[in-house]
Amino acid sequence: MIKRIYLSSPTMHDLEMKYIQEAFDTNWVAPLGKNVDEFENEMASFIGVSHAAALVSGTAALHLALKLCNVQPGDLVFCSDLTFSATVNPVSYEGGVQVFIDSERDTWNMDPRALERAFKKYPKPKAVIVANLYGIPAQLEEIKEICDHNNVPLIEDAAESLGATYRGKQTGTFGKYSALSLVVLKNSTSKEYTGIRKKSSKVA
Ligand SMILES: Cc1ncc(COP(=O)(O)O)c(C=O)c1O
Question: Is the pTM for the entire model greater than 0.85?
């Protein structure tokens, strides 16, 4: 007989059952309830930002961030080139055009020098999306500085880097908008996913 080995199968133990029961008992099954509010607050305070919003997926968080950056059909968005496809798919959902920025050898993430070259070569993009691949932060301060200098919002795809820090600061705090993911393959998992918003960003 073949023994099937599941990938990240859910573990439902005492606390999970307690909270599920509590949600039913208090009738806070939909739309949202206390547990989601607390999840958002705890996530925001763990990362060090003022707000976090739980969405259905990291992809949805990236999509929302692009909408908040007002990406319209034909607009350019500079994106990491070595990443999971969800980093860049939402650009297509809005009819935007990805410009792939090459990676550097040290972190395998977006190369700040390549980003600078792209700003010289292409018309101004609506946003830059940088991914922190495999839990390794990109050179986030350098990348943010280039974006600030060009007055273009940075979206941080921290789907793979929850808990990782860059120069002592949690990833997920560098972008104007940042996305985390708690899908089953990530280092911390849940059925809830998060998009987070940074202190300085405006309320949409
Ligand atoms: C780099 C990266 N961005 C975005 C996502 C999308 O997250 P989700 O699966 O929660 O939509 C993932 C993982 O799935 C990812 O690895």
Answer: yes
